[in-house]
């Protein structure tokens, strides 16, 4: 259901669930992409004369207030970007939240404090979650679900609240779905997926699902070492998930049977320690222990030959989905692989999607801009679960 289904919104109080979970460093927002992405819906609701109550989480506080997870800096940034006041209320539900909402006039915007300061938001207990959703529902007349990054969470503000008020998907959720459907319903081929990030275990579902659908999988990031180890190579002190070796061997066998290419790096950047100024060398991926650091060496990026090979595959792909950095891009010495993949995505003729809050922040931190890609998804876990073909609670409830 889209916003139209809610009818005339003039003078009605609309609760909008956004995903304003932005990266912060010492209270300063380092990437405001998720705030920008939320503006289309907010502007439209203001134009329609609604009174707007924005709710969101930030980080993973444990059900009680923690100053470092306050949404206050987000309200300030949102107000700048919107060009209109965004009042911040230091409560999610309660007397001051109700009073602030009650005082809104048409077109006003208020942002309530972090949903996850309330235990009910993420509770596994249905009744506790429902009780918190009921408190939220009292604040509005209608609900717009626009936090794409959280639609895979069965949480009070995502799932339960949508059942308590007239509800619809916001413009961001609708736009994200349209793009991701291009990847799941008959994608243009060759279809390549580039996966990085540290843990294989986070990507298990998506890898097994993708093997049935893609032409090529490029593997980088910390998880590549578990793939190398599964092929029988020593990986020195690099990240290794021993308990995933059999699963990964299964993937490699399955991919071979199906004629899907899984491309692993042929060279890697190995460092003496995990630090920005560590001594480092490029070594063949099947001889990591041959570096000067012996079995203490830690692989922190894909090497230049691999980056070129990955870029070549991307250049000849018609569809590319990318999730997860190729190395520790936050440290300049180990950013080249991620930068090369990002650059290749900007240069290919194919349709490109960058999936995930972290991957999006990575490409922006490396100096690329959103318009150089086909689409930058605001959802990390959500976009992966969508590609896995899972039912997402926050979408299911709007159907
Ligand atoms: C994200 O960053 O992927 C979303 O904001 C969801 O956050 P969560 O993984 O803490 O639920």
Automatic annotation (TrEMBL):
Is Metal-binding included in the keywords of this UniProt record? no
Q: In which pathway is this protein known to take part?
A: Carbohydrate degradation; glycolysis; pyruvate from D-glyceraldehyde 3-phosphate: step 2/5
Keywords for the protein's UniProt record, in alphabetical order: ATP-binding, Cytoplasm, Glycolysis, Kinase, Nucleotide-binding, Transferase
Q: Which Pfam families match?
A: PGK (PF00162)
Q: PROSITE patterns attached here?
A: PGLYCERATE_KINASE
**Binding-site positions, ATP:** 203, 299, 330, 356-359
Record field: catalytic activity? (2R)-3-phosphoglycerate + ATP = (2R)-3-phospho-glyceroyl phosphate + ADP
Q: Which Gene3D superfamilies match?
A: Phosphoglycerate kinase, N-terminal domain
Its EC number(s): 2.7.2.3
Give the main EC class.
transferase
Q: What domain of life does the native source organism fall in? A: Bacteria
Q: Which GO terms describe its molecular function?
A: kinase activity
Q: Which residues bind substrate?
A: 19-21, 34, 57-60, 116, 153
Localization recorded for this chain is: Cytoplasm
The keyword Secreted belongs to this UniProt entry's keyword annotation: no
Family label: Belongs to the phosphoglycerate kinase family.
User: Quaternary arrangement and interactors, per the entry?
Assistant: Monomer.
- Name of the protein in its database record: Phosphoglycerate kinase
Point out the gene that encodes the protein: pgk
């Amino acid at each position: 259901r889209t916003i139209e289904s809610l009818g005339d919104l003039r003078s009605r109080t609309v609760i909008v669930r956004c995903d304003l979970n932005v990266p912060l460093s010492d209270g300063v927002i380092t990437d405001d992409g998720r705030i920008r992405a939320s503006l289309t819906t907010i502007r439209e609701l203001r134009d329609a004369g609604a009174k707007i109550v924005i709710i969101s989480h930030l980080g993973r506080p444990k059900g009680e207030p923690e100053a470092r997870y306050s949404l206050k800096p987000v309200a300030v940034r949102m107000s700048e970007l919107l060009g209109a006041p965004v009042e911040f209320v230091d409560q999610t539900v309660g007397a001051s939240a109700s009073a602030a909402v009650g005082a809104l006039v048409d077109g006003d915007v208020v942002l309530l404090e972090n949903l996850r300061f309330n235990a009910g938001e993420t509770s596994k207990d249905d009744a506790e979650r429902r009780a918190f959703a009921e408190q939220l529902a009292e604040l509005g007349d209608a609900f717009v679900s626009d936090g794409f990054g959280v639609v895979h969470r069965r949480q009070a503000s995502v799932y339960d609240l949508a059942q308590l008020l007239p509800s619809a998907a916001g413009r961001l959720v609708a736009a994200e779905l349209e793009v991701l459907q291009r990847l799941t319903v008959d994608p243009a081929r060759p279809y390549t997926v580039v996966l990085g990030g540290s843990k294989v275990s986070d990507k298990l579902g998506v890898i097994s699902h993708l093997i049935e659908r893609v032409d090529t999988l490029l593997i980088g990031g910390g998880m590549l070492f578990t793939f190398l180890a599964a092929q029988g190579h020593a990986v020195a002190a690099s990240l290794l998930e021993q308990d995933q070796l059999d699963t990964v061997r299964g993937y490699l066998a399955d991919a071979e049977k199906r004629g899907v290419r899984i491309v692993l790096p042929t060279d890697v950047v190995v460092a003496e320690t995990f630090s920005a100024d560590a001594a480092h060398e490029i070594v063949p991926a099947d001889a990591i222990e041959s570096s000067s650091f012996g079995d203490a060496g830690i692989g922190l990026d894909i090497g230049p030959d691999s980056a070129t090979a990955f870029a070549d595959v991307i250049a000849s792909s018609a569809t590319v989905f990318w999730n997860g950095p190729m190395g520790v891009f936050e440290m300049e010495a180990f950013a080249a692989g991620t930068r090369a993949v990002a650059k290749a995505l900007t240069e290919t003729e194919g349709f490109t999607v960058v999936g995930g809050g972290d991957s999006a922040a990575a490409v922006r931190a490396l100096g690329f801009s959103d318009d150089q890609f086909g689409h930058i998804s605001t959802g990390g876990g959500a976009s992966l679960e969508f590609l896995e073909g899972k039912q997402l609670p926050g979408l299911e409830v709007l159907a």
